[in-house]
Design goal:
With 188 residues, the chain is mainly α. It is built from six helices and no strands. Helix 2 runs antiparallel to helix 5 and helix 3 packs antiparallel against helix 4.
């Protein structure tokens, strides 16, 4: 029983750290978006929509990942690790190559496009977690709540302080995902 409790704690901590890593992208983008003129009502709505997308996208990814895991076994775990390494590397690389101005304004349809683009990494991570066999409800709740709160934090900080953290938070989130990908690959 102690080993099961320890395994559960490790699993939950891994998911919390991954949720924070994924939320760093939302935080980073929120910082840039927060530099636009946004009311607190808009900030609340943006965070809520991004949180919902960070629940839907990994859920779809987990479902596909579980299906792949049932059919391809160990190869699926390798693919999940590779996906996390690539995603982490892409987040690190892209954090140093963008300007501060957002391409899409978070209003109307643009909000959904914005939320979808910010949550795409959650789909890939969900795919990896489905292969790994993560607890589904816990995963999507942690991802959604964490990204929602970090989006709010980013938007409020961006609204009040220019260039406070910048894109380094996205690079840090990418590094964490890369490390988890390597960890998955080493446990094959």
């Amino acid at each position: 029983m102690v080993e099961n409790a320890s395994q559960l704690f490790n699993h939950v901590m891994t998911l919390v750290i991954m949720a924070i890593a994924l939320g760093m992208d939302a935080l980073s983008v929120g910082l840039g978006m927060g530099m636009l003129t946004l009311r607190y009502k808009q900030i609340f709505k943006i965070g809520l929509v991004i949180g919902v997308f960070h629940m839907i996208m990994p859920l779809i990814g987990i479902a596909i990942g579980e299906l792949l895991s049932q059919h391809f076994g160990e190869m699926s775990q390798i693919a999940g690790g590779i996906l996390l390494v690539l995603l982490g590397g892409q987040m690190i690389f892209s954090s140093f190559g963008r300007g501060d101005e957002p391409i899409i304004r978070p209003v109307g349809f643009g909000l959904f496009v914005f939320a979808f683009s910010v949550s795409l990494d959650s789909f890939s991570v969900g795919l990896s977690l489905g292969i790994y066999g993560a607890k589904i409800v816990l995963t999507i709740i942690l991802f959604g709540l964490t990204s929602m709160v970090l989006t709010w934090v980013g938007l409020v900080i961006g609204r009040n302080f220019r260039h406070f953290v910048g894109h380094y938070s996205e690079a840090f989130g990418g590094l964490i995902l890369l490390i988890f990908g390597v960890k998955l690959l080493l446990h094959v």
